[in-house]
Amino acid sequence: MSLGWRAEQVEVVDDDQNQSGASASGRGGFQRLVSEVALGQVGAVLGLEVSRLARSCVDWYRLLEVAALAQTLIVDEDGVYDPNHYNDRLLLGLKGTLSEAELHFPGLRTSVAYERALAIAREILGADLAFDFDMLIDKAPHTATPTPWHQDCAYWIDLPDRRAASCWIALDDATLENGCMWFVPGSHELPMRPHRPAGPGGALACDASESDGVAAPLAAGACTFHAGATLHYSRGNSTGTRRRALIINFRPQAMVEYERARGFDHGKDGPGRENRNPLTR
Fold it and tell me: Does the pLDDT value for residue 279 go beyond 50?
């Protein structure tokens, strides 16, 4: 109601309580919601975690597509999203992908992987490192779209202390064919390279090639660590299976607080939503 709708205009959809969101089958409430959005009868879809409306990416993206066509907003506890806005659509897509992944990888966000990754990051860069942000990356089958060479720090605000470590955990086998990571050894010790827009949508790119780097294929469950200034890229996925990865980023606690004080929170709200592309791995 604080967004401008009167009480009589707000409808609670609770038909699907105690039913799994893994499929739209048998979920009359969700199906009705999608139909009414498609008919242009819904101004906004609100929920604490809206991605839980559909824990299947097929169903979730169907809702996002009709919401974009009908100019329906998506609202959750983190913010208000416009599915017609590229960055908002990417962020909503990531929320849905992570929601589906949690069905297959229970306890993903609370798993011991976070504790172990933090321990390793602290051993590498210092005991003051703390969790900053995480993201789930999903290279869909037969997309064959490479992620351009870049350095993560090109997306970030200038920080007094630039120490950062990203733990890249393979949730599926990462191969040359489906888009494993490539790194340029020692690049983190050199000045950041000039970056340019890689195209519409906010992705950045810099000059580098596979001849400069080393491929890092991984078995599911294995991981790599790289610094914020490490040059990296990945090929597109030319296979018939998905290539998913969980990325956990750490930096000094003082720098996490420094970012947040300046409105940069890696995609949840504020300027950080405009300054980074969440699909850059």
Answer: no
